[in-house]
TrEMBL record, chain A:
Family: Belongs to the MoaD family.
Keyword Nucleotide-binding recorded: yes
Keyword entries, A-Z: Molybdenum cofactor biosynthesis, Nucleotide-binding
Xref: InterPro entries: Beta-grasp_dom_sf, MOCS2A, Mopterin_synth/thiamin_S_b, ThiS/MoaD-like
The UniProt record lists the keyword Nucleotide-binding: yes
Gene Ontology molecular functions: nucleotide binding
Name this polypeptide is given: Molybdopterin synthase sulfur carrier subunit
GO biological process, one term: Mo-molybdopterin cofactor biosynthetic process
Pathway participation: Cofactor biosynthesis; molybdopterin biosynthesis
TrEMBL record, chain B:
Record's keyword annotation contains Transferase: yes
The protein's name in its UniProt record: Thiazole biosynthesis adenylyltransferase ThiF
Statement: the UniProt record of this protein carries the keyword Cell membrane: no
Domain THIF-type NAD/FAD binding fold: 5-241
Length: 77, 339
């Protein structure tokens, strides 16, 4: 299992800040697809991903117990 | 004025030496909205040598809740933000040389401004301009500090060419925007938190204390109480077209067409011609007045209204079409007046 953290408005859409899901040995892209389908999250392809507080791309492979944060970039100023 | 910077120089990482460096440097600030006015005030109070402020917009009532430099008088006068910011900064610190440039930041218009600056601070409201800044920063080897906020969310990241990854490494493409800009609003503390991050790193860069620069990408949400700083060392990509081994600076490529942009957080479309024009605003105003438009003007712009449609035209041919997010409609209205 891996822990997924939802930042900003993603937290509101999902209804909670953190979920524990299957994902050991998956890549980030696969996890995003699964999360998008399970929680109705749109636009995850342009959301930044941190794995254990380190930048990760779609090909990054996850390990048991990892914490994955989805952080939507914002553009206002 | 000898006491002016005493509390800043007592802070040992800055000191008298650091203050000398700050006062000898030139910062380019792109954008004079919420992030821009707060950054401009900070740099001015800190005693920067020269500050260049670039902005395309003018002051409106809805700005006053968070754009800290501006006043009701600026709204009444419809002053361009760059000009209003310059005036207020000069009242705060007459030692600082402040230059106001009223224009839309594009690859073509921004590139000359990178000459001779020590640092670029991002206070824009869109990723298109940020990607242009990112490419220019790499091309001219000048650090820049990304900052952005929407709602209660903010983020900041400092990019030093040759050292850190660049924004293109992290985003890979321009993210879909508008999802939250128009609906999310913005609260003042989110602005302040971003500016605190940008300002602290700006001071470090200006005093050349590069080791102190925040190494990660910081994100926070002041309402949902979330904070994260993401390490980015592994994000640097050798094949990045902006900062990799064979850069092409893809965002500096020009599209040779009139461009329309929905302005973030506003019911407004900006239309700009492929190349800047030099409009005779006075003549245009009297022509439009004669065609049944209600016309208001100042030396910088023309505000025209007819049948509930409102448009503000700048002398470089750029226009803001209010009351719409429809880019085609905006272009139609624009071309109806300016051909």
């Amino acid at each position: 299992m891996v822990n997924v953290l939802f930042f900003a408005h993603l937290k509101d859409v999902v209804g909670k800040e953190e979920v524990s899901v299957e994902g050991n040995e998956w890549n980030v892209a696969r996890l995003k697809e699964k999360i998008a389908a399970d929680y109705g999250l749109e636009g995850l392809e342009s959301v930044m991903t941190a794995v254990n507080e380190e930048f990760a791309d779609d090909e990054t492979i996850l390990s048991e117990g990892d914490t994955i944060a989805f952080i939507p970039p914002v553009s206002g100023g | 004025m000898s006491e002016r910077y005493s509390r800043q120089t007592l802070f040992s990482p800055i000191g008298e030496e650091g203050q000398k460096k700050i006062s000898s440097k030139h910062v380019l600030l792109i954008g004079a909205g919420a992030l821009g006015s707060a950054n401009a005030e900070f740099l001015t109070r800190a005693g920067i040598g020269k500050l260049t402020i670039v902005d395309r917009d003018y002051v409106e009532e809805s700005n006053l809740q968070r754009q800290q430099l501006y006043t009701e008088k600026d709204v009444l006068e419809k002053l361009p933000k760059a000009e209003a910011a310059k005036r207020h900064c000069q009242d705060i610190n007459g030692e600082v040389e402040v230059e106001a440039i009223i224009m839309d930041g594009t690859a073509l218009s921004l590139e000359p401004l990178f000459a001779g600056v020590s640092l670029v601070i991002d206070a824009t409201d869109n990723f298109e301009t940020r990607m242009v800044i990112n490419d220019l920063s790499q091309k001219h080897r000048i650090p820049w500090i990304y900052g952005a906020c929407v709602g209660s969310v903010g983020m900041s990241f400092t990019i030093i060419p040759g050292v850190t990854p660049c924004l293109n490494c992290l985003l890979r493409s321009i993210p879909i925007q508008g999802m939250t800009c128009d609906t999310g609003g913005i609260i003042f503390p989110a602005v302040q938190m971003v500016v605190a991050h940008q300002a602290a790193d700006a001071l470090k860069i200006l005093v050349e204390d590069y080791d102190a620069v925040r190494p990660g990408f910081s994100t926070f949400d002041l309402w949902r109480n979330q904070y994260q700083t993401m390490k980015v060392g592994r994000a640097k990509k050798s094949d990045c077209l902006s900062c990799g081994e064979a850069p092409t600076y893809p965002f500096l490529t020009l599209e040779n067409a009139t461009k329309t942009t929905v302005l973030c957080g506003r019911d407004t479309v900006q239309v700009r011609p492929p190349a800047p024009r030099k409009l005779q605003l006075e003549k245009l105003g009297s022509d439009l007045g004669g065609s049944g438009f209600t016309v208001k003007s100042n030396p910088f712009l023309l505000s025209v209204e007819k049948d509930g449609e409102r448009m503000v035209i700048f002398s470089d041919g750029r226009a803001l079409i209010h009351g719409t997010k429809d880019m085609v409609h905006a272009k139609v209205l624009y071309q109806r007046i300016l051909g």
